Amino acid sequence: PIYNEEASIPQLWERLAKVLNENFSGERDWELIFTDDGSKDRSLLMLLELAKAEPRVKVVEFNRNYGQHPAIFGALSEVEGQVVVTLDADLQNPPEEIPKLVAKVEEGYDVVGGWRQGRSMNDSIFRRLPSKIVNAITRKTTGVKLHDYGCMLRAYSREVVDAMLLCKERSSFIPALANSFAKRITEVPVGHAERAAGDSKYGFWKLINLQFDLLTSFSM
Fold first, then answer.
1. What is the value of pTM for the model shown?
2. 29 falls in which pLDDT band (50, 70, 90)?
3. What strands lie across the sheet with 185-190, from one edge to the other?
4. 3-class SS of residue 190
5. Which of 43, 62, 118, 217 has the least CB density, counted as fewest CB within 10 Å?
6. Which SS3 state, helix, strand or coil, does residue 116 take?
7. Rounded distance between C-alpha atoms, residue 52 and residue 67, angstroms
8. Torsion of the alpha carbons at 60, 127, 11 and 72, rounded to the nearest 10
9. In the chain, what is the greatest distance between 2 CA atoms, to the nearest angstrom?
10. With 0-12 CB in 10 A as exposed, 13-18 as middle and 19+ as buried, what is 23?
């Protein structure tokens, strides 16, 4: 998902291309799908230039800003691969961790969550505290005791992606939705860094809105 990330895109693409070409070539090819979530800067233009130069890059364009999870659904609807990894554009979770998650899916897991390490050094308490609350309520609501539901660096099997695409909710919380279709779920520690550029798109009220979606979608 991309929303006003023109400052991050060059480094994001450089690091993604390196890790994908080094780890997924030959029989295991890769594709990369960006959803431009109504950006008002040069993000969309930059993504279209990337897609013009690299045929394995696709761009989904939204007419306005719908939010992170709808943007990911927009990309999932275009996915062709058997293992699907989601990643934010801010480089707080390193693209270099992708092979670790793919390896776990290939071991037979349906969902592999990223568990961010080092958040205390990189995020303020005003960002971490609401996230802790969301995680606690999500664990209680879904019954799946993962440490970090807020990390978007996650991997899914093709079967789970297909099941999620059958759901037609107006909005949904993807990590919890995926878990409801998964038989084997695990998580792996992943790195966490300061935001490379730009500002966080998740303020306090967006976290509250996300929690509302979670409770109304997954509880009685």
1. 0.81
2. very high
3. 83-86, 154-157, 111-116, 185-190
4. strand
5. 118
6. strand
7. 26
8. -20
9. 49
10. middle
Position of tokens 């969301």? 134
Strands 154-157 and 111-116, bridge-based pairing: antiparallel
For the segment 127-162, what is each residue's pLDDT rounded down to a tens digit? 566 666 666 666 666 665 666 777 889 999 999 999
Question: Which residues, in sequence order, are CB contacts of 37 under 8 Å at separation 6+?
Answer: 1, 2, 3, 62, 65, 66, 67, 68, 70, 71
Mean per-residue pLDDT over the chain, rounded: 85
Q: Helix (H) and strand (E) counts for the chain?
A: 9, 6
Burial string for 180-192 (b: 16+ CB within 10 Å, else e) reads bbbeebbbbebeb
**8 A C-beta contact, residue 136 and residue 174:** no
Across 66-76, average pLDDT = 91
Structure tokens at 37: 């979530």
